Amino acid sequence: MLQLAQIRENKDAVVTALKKRNIDAEGVITQVIALDEERRSAQQTLDSNLNEAKKIAAEIGKLYKEGKADEANAAKAKTGALKSANQELDAKLKGILVELNDLLATIPNTPCYTVPAGKSAEDNLTERSWGEAKNADHATPHWELTSKYNIIDFELGVKIAGAGFPVYRGKGAKLQRALIQFFLDEAEAAGFEEVIPPHLINAESGFGTGQLPDKDGQMYHAAEDDLFLIPTGEVPITNIYRDVMLNEDQLPIKISGYTPCFRREAGSYGKEVRGLNRLHQFDKVEIVQITKPEESYARLEEMVAHVEGLLQKLELPYRVLRLCGGDMGFTAALTFDLEVYSAGQGRWLEVSSVSNFEAYQANRMKLRIKNKDGKKELAHTLNGSALALPRILAALIENNFDGERITIPKAIVPYTKFETIE
């Protein structure tokens, strides 16, 4: 959530920055400032009344002792009137705060100055690429290969749960598990502490990282318990530090975790969602960092490099994209997407998004840092997929099929305990 001070002091800059998201925020920002001025005025009046009531209360006893009963009674009546006015002011303040916070929750993060303008994925900038993106000699989409070798059963998943819930079998299950362990081991080697978080969250956690109210309709909701299935490991992992004050010397905090993820993906259809391309349940290893504001962009580059290292070890051709304002997530200040080339489908597949949220999530979560001089400030939060499994698995299967067998990348053979699927 944007900070009120940021909006008050830099109104024009905030409005200009949000134009990169193709949002005309002039009206809502003006409304926020007006509400905040109303809040501050009401708070000043309330504080003044409370101070006056305190002074009068101290005088009442003195007036009685001096035999000035009429003056004391008048003072008591005045404190009664002030109390009544203060109750009204307090109720007004609470109403303004609710309205103000609800309004702030609808405003996305302001993009970093390095974010390119644009309306859709077509306007994203390619930063760099690695490997040769070419179609396989025996180009075959993964949904045909997984059926041929009986390693993923999509129809059985439909029977058990519905479309988007595949069943991994035999070497397919072992390959999935091997990739998860490989990603976790690489994260540990890079200094990330592993956690196993809950796979359901409360509404406060969803709000803290920005999934609520923005993506309410995309999450599965257990209404009776008012809990949500996690759409990404980012949510429970980052919320470990909700309502926490960190000392400067604790930073950076680096955490990784494997979780299943659940997304309704309402409205998704067509060839781009076939097979493993878009699922309602999928596995992912997430990396999260909490840092000092002045270090967050260096940490972002570090996290992107970590994901690139994983893709290189898996021998997958990839490219790094800097997302434009129109394609960036609600809470992000800057996002890099990493896409691998799918040799069986002849197209690029997104496998990771690495984002710096600056203070946006920290402000929602009340996640602060106490510096050595005692000064308090909001932390910066970052997260990235390292990696999301479905499209990685799809690309591995398609890119390594030679017409007879699927060859496993050398880096994960120690985890799979087999070199081929045939």
Features:
422 residues; eight-stranded mixed beta sheet; three-stranded antiparallel beta sheet; elongated; 41% helix
Task: Characterise this structure.
With 422 residues, this protein is of the alpha+beta class. It is built from 13 helices and 18 strands. The strands form 5 sheets. An 8-stranded mixed sheet has the order 1-11-12-13-16-10-9-4. The chain has a 3-stranded antiparallel sheet with strand order 5-7-6. A hairpin with a 5-residue loop joins strand 14 and strand 15. Helix 3 runs antiparallel to helix 4 and helix 5 packs across helix 12. The longest helix is centred in the first third of the chain and has 40 residues. The protein starts with a helix and ends with a strand.
Indicate the topology:
Layout: H1 4-9, H2 11-18, H3 26-65, H4 69-104, E1 125-130, H5 142-148, E2 152-153, H6 154-160, E3 167-168, H7 170-189, E4 193-194, E5 200-201, H8 203-208, E6 221-222, E7 227-229, H9 234-238, E8 245-247, E9 253-262, E10 281-291, H10 296-313, E11 318-322, E12 334-342, E13 347-356, H11 360-365, E14 368-370, E15 376-378, E16 380-388, H12 389-399, E17 406-407, H13 413-416, E18 420-421
Parallel strand pairs: 4-9, 8-14
Antiparallel strand pairs: 1-11, 2-3, 5-7, 6-7, 9-10, 10-16, 11-12, 12-13, 13-16, 14-15, 17-18
Helix pairs in contact: 3-4, 5-12
